[in-house]
């Protein structure tokens, strides 16, 4: 009986070792694939940045608490937002940053409040957008920043708290306009009235 138990334990140990080594092999293949995918994504991002003149809207970004405000620093701009956890942000491309209501996004309603987009000064294609404002000019990066606002419902209309939060934040970001004294968007070159 003792010999049988020893053989059974040995077989179990061998099975565990085979499984462990097989798992290691799969992890190495997975790591190789993940590394390859990451390298491809990095290359694509670098190519997109180069195609955009080497500009990345969130290069060197920081989020700094300042009392009741959160200061979101991007590449040659500052966006001042309320210091709460109701909103979030996402870089959707090398030249676009989206600000959204978290609850609405989590519920599948988009939640988009504003998209901040960087354009070359000679590019005025943003004039075709239905609802936008010129946010400011970034002389250091030679970009014109545009605030693009949604034209459709971006929150759950059956959720009164979500609707109130959305409208409160939308009212805040709709003040984004070049030269406005209370604009929450600023560049080093901003000159409020």
Explain this structure.
The protein is an alpha+beta fold and 193 residues long. Helix content is 36%, strand content 27%. It is built from three helices and nine strands. It has helices at residues 2-51, 102-106, 160-173, and strands at 62-66, 69-74, 77-82, 87-93, 96-101, 112-119, 132-138, 143-148, 185-186. The strands form two sheets. It has a five-stranded antiparallel β-sheet with strand order 4-5-6-8-7. The chain is globular. It starts with a helix and ends in a 7-residue tail after the last strand. The model is unreliable at 1-50 (pLDDT under 50).
Short description:
The chain is built from three helices and nine strands; from the N terminus they run H-E-E-E-E-E-H-E-E-E-H-E. It is of the alpha+beta class and 193 residues long. The strands form two sheets. Strands 4-5-6-8-7 form a five-stranded antiparallel β-sheet. It has a four-stranded antiparallel β-sheet with strand order 1-2-3-9.
